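Quiz preparation item.
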């Protein structure tokens, strides 16, 4: 019983830490992790997924810009 309680506490603590990190990263990167309807935070896993997708999108855009600059510089 105590082991189950300890595991539950650790998992809750871990989720809270990750949720805090999602909030911090989303503010730093100016990524919206709200559900759009009423501004409330998304579910835990959906927030992580959305943040990852947005980071990947921003990295792709930066790579495309860098490639274009390299192309322009070589002309």
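Solution:
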């Amino acid at each position: 019983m105590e082991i189950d309680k300890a595991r539950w506490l650790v998992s809750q603590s871990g989720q809270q830490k990750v949720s805090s990190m999602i909030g911090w990263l989303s503010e730093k990167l100016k990524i919206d992790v709200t559900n759009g309807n009423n501004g409330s935070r998304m579910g835990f896993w959906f927030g992580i997924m959305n943040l990852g997708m947005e980071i990947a999108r921003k990295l792709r855009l930066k790579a495309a810009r860098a490639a274009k600059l390299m192309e322009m510089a070589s002309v």
